[in-house]
């Protein structure tokens, strides 16, 4: 994963210098924390997250746990690792299923974030686990969006519910509701609702997404965010949190060469877990998100 290349290199360098020392003085700790702070900011991690993170590392690194350690530098690396896992959400959070099927999963996010592609990826993953997902096309804003979901559904070998072509603009809330009813009738155990995305956050889009949420009572609302959007990640995530109150995050385009700040900020800023990471355009390029594995990758 190239996303964290620079951040990873800089932290490795910081720790290499630290390992050359034996016992650590408070000045050593401060110097290290300053370097970590700069590396995180340069990686586009949001300022409040950086502050909280470095304060926690500093406090623990100046405390007894490091003073008493046989290898203080290694102990600091361990603390950074723990705190990284913390800002990435702590424990792995799995997708939640309804007690009574169908489980309804709604996707939301900006246009181009990778929602439609992820819908196909999710369908394919779930099918491998023996589920029978139905994709529901509720992006009726863009003329080509329904068609695009149809292509993705075909590639994933998944069923799709879409309004008939030529039926005018259509009402996405009705399509969502009818889609869930259709899934129940046809005994699909999971419904994946693709919603409209716009280039920027806008009130009408949020209202529509929120209406779909209310009408279908999803078990999960997944906010798909492009890891490449850098500093915009925090504001976009907050806007979607206010607008649709998502239950989990999908980080997409983690294969890109962006600096990774979105990934490191979004769980912490919204308090919502990252559930999946998307790492390419192919339908198999997706994996459940593990905070501990991601932290290890960054610190490797
Ligand atoms: P939507 O507008 O949110 O539905 O976004 P799309 O699913 O249409 O994706 C927008 C573009 O990003 C398409 O060209 C996808 O092939 C591409 N894309 C989606 N997910 C990923 C990913 O994880 N990595 C990369 N490199 N490209 C992706």
Automatic annotation (TrEMBL):
One of its GO terms (cellular component) is signal recognition particle. It catalyses: GTP + H2O = GDP + phosphate + H(+). It is found in: Cytoplasm. One of its GO terms (biological process) is SRP-dependent cotranslational protein targeting to membrane. Its EC number is 3.6.5.4. GO terms for molecular function: 7S RNA binding; GTP binding; GTPase activity. Involved in targeting and insertion of nascent membrane proteins into the cytoplasmic membrane. Binds to the hydrophobic signal sequence of the ribosome-nascent chain (RNC) as it emerges from the ribosomes. The SRP-RNC complex is then targeted to the cytoplasmic membrane where it interacts with the SRP receptor FtsY. Belongs to the GTP-binding SRP family. SRP54 subfamily. Part of the signal recognition particle protein translocation system, which is composed of SRP and FtsY. This is Signal recognition particle protein. It comes from Microbacterium enclense. The gene is ffh. The chain holds residues 1 to 300 of 514 of the full protein.
């Amino acid at each position: 994963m190239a996303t964290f290349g620079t951040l990873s290199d800089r932290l490795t360098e910081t720790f290499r210098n630290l390992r050359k020392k034996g016992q650590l003085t408070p000045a050593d700790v401060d110097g290290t924390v300053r370097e970590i702070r700069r590396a995180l900011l340069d990686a586009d991690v949001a300022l409040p997250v950086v502050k909280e993170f470095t304060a926690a590392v500093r406090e623990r690194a100046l405390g007894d746990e490091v003073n008493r350690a046989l290898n203080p530098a290694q102990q600091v690396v361990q603390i950074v690792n723990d705190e990284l896992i913390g800002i990435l959400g702590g424990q792995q959070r799995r997708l939640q299923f309804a007690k009574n099927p169908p489980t309804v999963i709604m996707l939301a996010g900006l246009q181009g974030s990778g929602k439609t592609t992820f819908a196909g990826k999710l369908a394919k993953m779930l099918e491998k686990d023996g589920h029978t997902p139905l994709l529901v096309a509720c992006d009726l804003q863009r003329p080509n969006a329904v068609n695009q979901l149809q292509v993705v559904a075909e590639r994933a070998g998944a069923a799709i519910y879409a309004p008939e072509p030529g039926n005018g603009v259509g009402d996405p809330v009705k399509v969502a509701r009818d889609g869930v009813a259709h899934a129940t009738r046809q005994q699909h155990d999971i419904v994946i609702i693709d919603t409209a995305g716009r280039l920027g956050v806008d009130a009408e889009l949020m209202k529509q997404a929120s209406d779909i949420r209310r009408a279908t009572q999803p078990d999960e609302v997944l906010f798909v965010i492009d890891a490449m959007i850098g500093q915009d990640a925090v504001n976009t995530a907050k806007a979607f949190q206010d607008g649709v109150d998502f239950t989990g995050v999908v980080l997409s385009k983690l294969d890109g060469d962006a600096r990774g700040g979105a990934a490191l900020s979004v769980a912490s800023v919204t308090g919502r877990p990252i559930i999946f990471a998307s790492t390419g355009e192919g339908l198999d390029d997706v994996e459940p998100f593990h905070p501990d594995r991601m932290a290890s990758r960054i610190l490797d």
